[in-house]
Amino acid sequence: MRNGSDDYRSQGQRRKLVELLRNKGISDQRVLQAIGSIPRHLFIDDTALHAAAYEDIPFPIGCGQTISQPYTVAYQTELLQVTKGMKVLEIGTGSGYQTAVLATMGARVFSIERHRPLHIRSRKRLEELGLRARAYYGDGYKGLTAHAPFDRILVTCGAPHLPQALVDQLAPAGRLVIPVGEGDVQRMLLVTKNAQGIVHQEDKGSFRFVPMLGEKENG
Ligand code: SAH
Hints:
globular; about 25% strand; 9 strands; alpha/beta; Rossmann fold
């Protein structure tokens, strides 16, 4: 990754953030390494917020959306169990930060964003940082049929229900992590598909996400 606008101060703040995430229970070394190396401040447009970019809090990124708090990013990524070379579909590119975490871990990332301005901005940002990911503008409910199946699928917005298209696009032995719930608070579901294609769900706790938007909503 090229990180020309990174500096020692940010690097120091990231080391502290990694320590905090470790204390909160994140143990996947590769997830912690990725978070330790990615300049999160560069994913936040409003430079007035940069001083707080390594606090464990979400920030607005425009279009009424937010970059998730680092603990949530770490928790979802840890649940996903990503290894190098895996094909990963992300729903909700947003700032591109989570995309960057997955790409840094060596995943082949396909990411879909429903708001065009965010899609354009995150695609440019990932390119500038030298991170390889394929970013699409579209509706995540449908997944990405042309590139299915995926070894892993990660949804970073709160879905009212588990979209069947995403379950269908999950490869055998695949894992899908998705916050599901109608209100402000969602349950983090880990959906696994075994080698025979049998699907199993586990509840991994409660989280707060911006809602997943339907086809006709403008958010
Ligand atoms: N992963 C992002 C989190 C952004 S918040 C990051 O690291 O910054 C969730 C994102 O999901 C928002 O950008 C929102 O616009 C997007 N979104 C909501 N509904 C969607 C849908 N149906 N398809 C694709 N993206 C969607």
